Amino acid sequence: TNVITVGIAGTSVLTIFTPLAAYGGAGWILAVRVLQGMFQGVVFPCLLDLWARWAPPSERTNRVMVTFVGISVGTLKAIVIGELLVESVSWESVFYIFGVAGCLWCVAWIKMIRKSPDEDRSI
């Protein structure tokens, strides 16, 4: 769960700095995107590990499927919201809003999620 947090937090912070990088030129935007890819690259395998710890064997496939479908649906919604933000505010606002949302998500994740059911006091 810590690796997921670092992956999402790193991507989110870099998302906030993406407009600044874009104004800095192609080299900066390339560097930010490569770093974002490195942070994001750890998230998907860690989600599988999370479900291996939390879900009973008979439910793992369904939970993984719902997780990945949710990611795809979230991406589609982000595209629509991003378009609305570009039209009504600015292209930079997309990066600021989604970057901050990712940071807030990390705070909630840290407060709610534990590595395994054994570590969760609410179960």
UniProtKB/TrEMBL annotation:
<keyword id="KW-0812">Transmembrane</keyword>
<feature type="transmembrane region" description="Helical">
    <location>
        <begin position="28"/>
        <end position="52"/>
    </location>
</feature>
<dbReference type="GO" id="GO:0006820">
    <property type="term" value="P:monoatomic anion transport"/>
</dbReference>
<keyword id="KW-1133">Transmembrane helix</keyword>
<keyword id="KW-0472">Membrane</keyword>
<dbReference type="InterPro" id="IPR011701">
    <property type="entry name" value="MFS"/>
</dbReference>
<dbReference type="GO" id="GO:0022857">
    <property type="term" value="F:transmembrane transporter activity"/>
</dbReference>
<feature type="transmembrane region" description="Helical">
    <location>
        <begin position="94"/>
        <end position="113"/>
    </location>
</feature>
<feature type="domain" description="Major facilitator superfamily (MFS) profile">
    <location>
        <begin position="1"/>
        <end position="123"/>
    </location>
</feature>
<dbReference type="InterPro" id="IPR050382">
    <property type="entry name" value="MFS_Na/Anion_cotransporter"/>
</dbReference>
<protein>
    <submittedName>
        <fullName>Sialin</fullName>
    </submittedName>
</protein>
<dbReference type="InterPro" id="IPR036259">
    <property type="entry name" value="MFS_trans_sf"/>
</dbReference>
<dbReference type="InterPro" id="IPR020846">
    <property type="entry name" value="MFS_dom"/>
</dbReference>
<dbReference type="Pfam" id="PF07690">
    <property type="entry name" value="MFS_1"/>
</dbReference>
<feature type="transmembrane region" description="Helical">
    <location>
        <begin position="64"/>
        <end position="82"/>
    </location>
</feature>
<dbReference type="GO" id="GO:0016020">
    <property type="term" value="C:membrane"/>
</dbReference>
